[in-house]
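Encode chain A's predicted structure.
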Amino acid sequence: MDMSEAEKETDNQDIVEEFESGETPGSGADYEPEQAKDALETEESAVEEEELGPLEAALRDAAMWREVALRSKAELENFRKRTARERSDAARYANIDLLETLLPVLDNFEFGLQAAKAEEGSSIYLGMQMVLKQIRDFLSGQGVEVIDAVGQTFDPKLHNAVAQEASDEVPEGTVVSQVRKGYRMHERLLRPASVNVSTGPAVADVAVADAELAEGEAQPS
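Encoded structure for chain A:
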C-alpha cells in the first residue's frame, strides 16, 4: 500500500528535526557523540596506515610497543628497589618503639647509680655497674648511640635547649652542660639531648672589657 502524502510529509519532518537536534537519523535517544568521535579516529588511523604502507605502520607500532616495554621495565625496577628499601627499614627499625620506652628506665638507673656512688666499692654498686654495661651493650647492638652534646655547637636537630647561661670560657651558641642524654638509632633521632646553651660572657664582663678597651685607646702612645 502506498504511503499517503500526509505520512510522507510527516516522515520527512521527523528526519529534519533529527538533523537539527544533532542526532543521527534512525539512531534515536541511544546515539552518543563519543561513538562518532571514535569512529572518526579509527577511520583516520586506517587512512594513515594506508598512506604509510604496511611496513612503515609495522615499524611504527614496533617502536611504540618497545617504548611501552622499556617504561614498564623501569617502573618495575623502581618498585622493586622501593620495596626492598622499605623492607630493610622495617627490619632495621623494628624495635624502635621498645627502645624509646627503655630510655627513661635507663635514665633512672643511671641516676640511681650516681646516688650510690658513695658506696663505690660495695657489691651492690658493682652489680649495678654490670647491669648498666649490659643495657648499654644491648642498645649498642641495636644501633643506638649517645648524641654528643657538651662542647658542641647547638644543633636544633639534635639538641633541645632548656636554658641559657653566661660563660666566659664557652663561646656563644655552644652547649655548656647536658641535663638529659640524647640518643639516635642509625640515622633516626630517638630523643634529643636536653642542654644548656652558652650566651657568651656575662653583660657586666663585656661592659668592663669595653671600658678597658676604650681607656686603652684614649691613652696617648
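The first helix runs from residue 5 to 20.
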